[in-house]
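hey so i finally got around to running both of the ones u sent me last week. sorry it took forever, my laptop kept dying halfway thru and i had to restart like 3 times lol. anyway pasting them below in the order u listed, first the sequence line then the C-alpha cell line for each. didnt double check formatting much so if smth looks off just lmk and ill redo it

first one:
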Amino acid sequence: MATGQIITNSGKQIILHRTYTASPTITAPNRFKVGTGATTPTLSDTDLVTPVDIDGDNFKDFVTGYPSINTTSLQSTIRCFLNSLEANGNTLTEFGIVNSDGTPLLFSRTVHTGISKTASNEITYIAKDRILWWF
C-alpha cells in the first residue's frame, strides 16, 4: 500500500465547473467517506475501493463551519469527524472527499496507515488543499 492523497479527475471537473460556470450544476465537495481499501490512489478513481458504513450510509457531512478558506495562503481546510458509534469494527485505510450530487463525484482519495475503529475511539480527519502555481 502506498500512502498519499490525490485529487481525482472528477475532482478537477468539480473545480473547473464551479470556477467557470455562472450557475454551477455540480455541487461543491461537502461530504466524506471512509473505507478499508489499500490500493494506491489514481486520477481515475471514482469511489473508494471498499467504502464502509458510517451511520446507516457510506458518507457523512463535513464538520459544521468547514471548509474554511484562507485566501492569503490559497488553502482550504476541511474537518471530518467519526464519533464512537460510527464505522466501528473496521480498520480504516482510506478517506475520500465527495460532493452531494445524485451520483456523488469523488473529489479526492487518500490512503493511510490503518486505524482500528472501535466504540472506544473517535477519529478526526483534517484535509488541506492548496493551490500552487507553476509557469
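and the second one:
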Amino acid sequence: MSRLIIVLGLLCTAGCLGSSEEEYAAKDREASKATWALVLKVDGADVRMPLEVMNVLLFKDEDHAKQNPSAFEIAGPGVKLIGEIAAADNVDYGEHWERLVNKMLTIKAAGQFHRDPVESKITLPGKPETAVTGGTMFVEKYTGKWSGAQGNKTLSGKIMMQLEDGRTIEGTFAVHAVTWG
C-alpha cells in the first residue's frame, strides 16, 4: 500500500511539473507576442504593424539543404512577405536560429512556400494594399526558449522594403520564428 502511495505521489509530481512547464511557456509566449511587429518609418512617423509568425520551410535532404536557400513566409494583419535564407545559414531541424544573427535575409516579390504561391505585399494604415518588390532583413538578435507554433522564439532586427510605387520603407522587426518540414 505504501508503494502505491509513493508511485501515485511521483506520478502526480511529474504531471504537475509538466503542467507548470506549459504554463511557463504560455506566459513567456504572451510576453514575447507583445513585441512581434514591424515598426516602419512612413512619411516621418512610426507605423506599428503586428506580426504573427515567420514560417521557415526546411529540407529533409541535408545535401539539398546545403545547396539551396530555405524559403520563409512572414504573416500578420496587412503583411505577407516571402523570402529566402541562404543555404549556408540554414537553421535546420535543430532550430539553430543563432546562425541568422548578423545575417541578411532576402525579401522577394513572389515565391513559393510549401508549393503554395505567395506574393509579398503590405497594407499600410489608410492606404490600399501595395506589392513589395524586394527588400532585406538584417537579423540582429535571437531570443526565446520555447520552440514550435506555441513557442516564443523571436528574431529581431532591421528591415528595408521596396514597394511597387517606388518608395523604400525602412524600420525594425520582431517576429515569432517557427520551422516546418
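quick thing i noticed on the 2nd:
The chain is about 20% helix and 45% strand.
anyway thats it, ttyl
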